[in-house]
Structures are given as structure tokens and as C-alpha cells.
Amino acid sequence: MQAKNLSHSRLRTIIIMIVALLLMMAVGSAGAQGTVIAYGSPVFGTLSAEAPLGFFNFNGTAGDLITVRVIGTGGGLDPNVGLLSPTQVSLASNDNDLFSPGSSDASVSLRLPETGVYSLLVGGSNGTTGDFLLRVDAAAPSVSTALSPDTPTVVNIPLGAPSQSFSFNANPGGSTTLNLSTDSPGFGFTAVVRNGAGQIVAILGGDTLQSASLTIGAGSGVYEVAVSSSSPDTQGAVNISLGAGAAASTGQTSSAPPPPAATQEAVAPPPAQTGADPLAGIGANDACTVTPAGGNVNLRAGAGTNFPVQGQLFAGQTANPDGQTFGNDNFIWFRLPSTAWVRSDVVRQAGNCIGLPTVASPAAPAAPPPPPPPAATEETGAPPPPPTQAPPPQDNNQPPTEETQEPPPPTEETPPPNPTAPPDTGQYILEVDRDENTQFSEQVSSPEGDTTDQVFIRITGLQNTPPNSTREFSFTLVCSGSGTELLRWGTGGNLGTNGCGATSTRLFTNDSDTILFTIGFPPGSGPALVNYTIVINKIS
After folding, report:
1. Rounded distance between C-alpha atoms, residue 186 and residue 233, angstroms
2. Which of 437, 441, 471 is nearest to 179 (CA)?
3. Residue 423 to residue 443: CA distance in whole angstroms
4. Is the dihedral of CA 270, 273, 275, 281 positive or negative?
5. Cβ atoms < 10 Å from Cβ of 278
6. Average of pLDDT values for 514-519?
7. Domains in the chain and their CATH numbers?
8. What is the C-alpha to C-alpha distance for residues 100 and 472, in angstroms, rounded to an integer?
């Protein structure tokens, strides 16, 4: 009965927020209804049964990296917050603050996609009310240094220095591991990893941390890592390198198939490297730009090697894709404005490629018809008919043999079935040591196959007395594949509202050491095949 009441309370909160959003859209501008706030200025407010939502506006500039924090200050309020674009499109929402261990505060971090007036909706989770403090902070767009998979980078961090930013491209053909370490005595570092949209993927660090790593699943887009000292009173150096991701120790055997073998889409050997990098100077918030990873690469009429070649993208040339899709060969394909398609594993990427919209590929071309029989000529006459034999006597009591069965109907025109995740147990139990960072990977599909997984995660080694009586962990879902925008996940037995790239945090104690995540697709979702990884990091 308690779970039922909780569900009704969440439903009530969602309905109130939807009604409020509709009212705002009907006016045409939230500015007429919301209090205007400025970056860095705290605002105090109160939610009650009569006024269960707070409306606020702020002026944002494209590229600003903002952090919205809502802290409950009285009355038992468990706050949540939603961010709306200048056109009233929902951009992000949250009800757990990653930076407040043990609290129920709300936080949203995002790189603003456009200049305009943004709106904030502040509410109470599970119908709670009370007082709150709201603050929006912003950082101007920063210049990040590109990391190369083959070249380790050493970052020197002097006393009191601000964070230094670095960027790297995800690998569509396999996972990428970000490795960080320090040899400086008495020095600890913190690394905040964000995706192309500015959302936090993971936080690695601590006063005594000497090394850390994060594996990001196969996909496209640019990630950014900001490195700083864990304490302004210490200085040292951090070593950063990129490598191919190794299989994580999850305690479970994943049923996801291995990545497909690459087919040759490069049509010329890579030339000798001369001149400037064509992707140099392209920031994470700039338009997605691609260039051949080696020599010339094919441009095709659709998302697959079964489409005809329309041309080539030559070595050193760049192009700006306007969409992406998941091909039948299990690779991501970029659509260029000329309606030509290039496969993601044969190009290098820069800019906000992860934010490209998902678009449909043209229908696959039909198989060519069989050649006609040779025509008769004067010299050869008509070709002789094939010899025929009298059929053997038919025994009506015997089933037909392979020779007498009718051939199956042709299947050339039958569209291929949607790829699906193979059925599995659907439930997993993962035990994580109180001081361990790890990850768990699986695969789900829609509308058929393995549509939903439940993952029980238990934190082991917690004790009754400090310092090992509590631990806080963050859980981030990293996705690749087709239909990633349809995937939802949350805690408990029902799907939540979190999507791919979202992060949830939880404080664990000796008598509350387990969390359940449900990951899958809501009823009525379209075709999708998603490989997901739960990245598990200890915060404190």
C-alpha cells in the first residue's frame, strides 16, 4: 500500500507540472508568470498545497555552462527542478543533487544551446512542501585541449589554479577508457566528465586519489573533462591518457553481442600528415564536423553498405552532418546536407555530434532481378529445353520429401526484422565494494526481445560505526545504439523519467545498502536497440 501511495503522489506531481507547462505555453512566454533571477543571486521561495510550483526565468547565452541548485531549507521539502528552453521545450530535470552528499536537494547542469529567456519549474517530490533556496550559476564557454588516443598528456596544477579542460571523441566502433593518475606526493585531484550537452557523466576524485578510470561505451560525440586539485592548498601533476575500454568486472556475463566487424568504407590509404588538423579549433558546442580518419571515404545513398556509392569525402575535407541514425550493420551513420551518408567509424568528429537529431534512412534498395534466359539467335536456334523425367509414383501415405516440396516464397522484398536484444533473465544482482568504482553493461530492445532489465546493486563492507558506516555513490547511464532517446530508467520496480546520460546519487548505510534500477522502454515505444552501461562511482 505504501508503494501505491507513493506512485499516486508522483503522478500528482507530474500532472501538476504538465498543467503548469501548458498554462505557460498558452500565455506564449513564461516571463509574464515567472520571477526573473540573475546568475549568482540566491532566491528564496515557499511551496504550499495552494501553490505547489515555483516559476522563475533567467537570461542565458548560448554556450553558458549553467548549474541550477535548489536546496530545501524548511518544512520537509524534497525539491525537484525542471529546466525549459526559450521555446518551452523541456531540457533537463532532477531531484537529487550530485554535489550534496546525503541530501535530497536538486541540481541540473547543462550547456545552454541558444541565447534567450529560460524557465525553471521548482516543485516538491512526493507532494512535499516547504521553503527552498534557488541559485543559478554560470561559467562562460571555455577553451579545451583535445586529447589524442596515442599521446598521454601531463597536466600541471599550481596552487589555487582553476580547473583545466580537455576534450576527446567517443569511438563509435568500441568503448573508450579515460585514465587519470598522479605521482605527486600528498596531492589529490578531481575530474568532472561531461557529455557534449554539458551534462555530468561522472565525477572522479578525492583528497587521496592517486588513479582513476572511466569507460564510455561505443557511440559518437565529444566529451569534456575538467581537472583540478581536490584542495586549493596542494599542487601537483595529473597524467591523462585514452585507451580502448576493457571488459568491466561486473559479476555477470553480458548477453550483448560483440560489436560488428568493420567493413571497409575507406577507399584510399591515409596520406602523409601535412598541414593543420582540419578539426582544430572546433569546440564542443560548435556544429558537428567530420573529416576522414585516414584516406578518402565513401558517401552512400543511405545508411548501409548495401546502398550505392554516390561519391567520396576526400582526406582533409570536412562536412557538417545534420542527422544520424543506426544502420542495419549496427554502425552509426551520419547524414550530410547533400543527403549522402557516411559511416561514423571511418571519420573523426568534433563539435556537438552527440546532439544531432535522429533521422530516418531511405528504404533499402531492392535486390536486382535475376538475369533473363539467353535469347535464341539464327545461328544457335532456341536453347534446348532441359530434360524431363517422369515423376515417380506418389505414395499418398508418405509425407512429401524435400524434392517434392514446393519452394518457399521469395523473400527479396520482405523488409528485414528490427534487431532485438536476446532474451535473458531480466534481473541481475551486482555487489560493489564500499570503496570500488565499477560498471555494469547489458542490452535492451523495443518493441520485441529483452525490453526491460532490473539491476539490484548492493554496497558491501559497510559497518555500524564510522568511518565506514556510510558511502555515497553516483550512477550514470551511458548509452549507444538506435533509439537511445526512448530509453528510460529509475529506481524501484517501475521505469522512471531519467534518460541516457542522466545521473542519480544515493547514500548507503549498513542497514540500507541496496538499490534497484529498472531500465527499459515505456509501452508503445518505437523500434530501438540500445547497449547501456551503468557507471558506478564512489563520491564519499
Report:
1. 11
2. 437
3. 10
4. positive
5. 17
6. 86
7. 1-141 (2.60.120.380), 145-244 (2.60.120.380), 289-355 (2.30.30.40), 419-540 (2.60.120)
8. 10
Q: Would strands 176-181 and 211-216 be described as parallel, antiparallel, or unpaired? A: antiparallel
The full 3-state SS of 484-539, as one line of letters, equals: HHHCEEEECCCCCCECCCCEEEEEEECCECEEEEEEECCCCCCCEEEEEEEEEEEC
Show the 3-state SS of 435-499: CCCEEEEEEEEECCCCCEEEEEEEEECCCCCCCCCEEEEEEEEEEEEECHHHCEEEECCCCCCEC
The model's pLDDT over 178-213, given as tens digits with 9 standing for 90+, comes to 888 888 888 888 888 888 778 777 777 666 667 877
The H or E element that residue 94 is part of is strand 90-94
- Distance in angstroms between the alpha carbons of the first and the last residue of the chain: 34
List Cα–Cα distances, 523 to 452, 485, 492, 494, in angstroms. 11, 14, 17, 12
C-alpha cell at 313: 569525402
Give 364's contacts (C-beta < 8 A, 6+ positions apart): 302, 304, 306, 307, 328, 415, 416
Pairing of strands 90-94, 79-84: antiparallel
Grid coordinates in use for 526? 518505437
Cell of 148: 589524442
Q: CB-based burial of residue 294 (10 Å sphere; 0-12 exposed, 13-18 middle, 19+ buried)? A: middle
The C-alpha angle 431, 436, 439, rounded to 5 degrees, equals 65
User: Residue 185: exposed, middle, or buried by beta-carbon count in 10 A (0-12, 13-18, 19+)?
Assistant: exposed
Helices vs strands, H then E, count in the chain: 1, 33
Single-letter amino acid, residue 68: V
Virtual torsion, Cα 288, 292, 294, 298, nearest 10 deg: 140
3-9: Cβ within 8 A, 24+ apart? 3/492, 3/493, 6/126, 7/494, 9/126, 9/127
Nearest of 363, 327, 356 to residue 342 by alpha carbon: 327
Cα–Cα nearest to 502, from 199, 297, 192, 234: 199
Dist. CA 536–CA 471, nearest whole Å: 12
Strand partners, 70: 106, 134
CA atoms of 143 and 160, how far apart (whole Å):
19
Q: How confident is the model at residue 266 (pLDDT cuts 50, 70, 90)?
A: low
- 432 contacts 406 by C-beta, under 8 angstroms: no
pTM: predicted TM-score of the whole model, two decimal places: 0.42
pLDDT digits (tens, 9 = 90+) for 523-536: 888 899 988 889 89
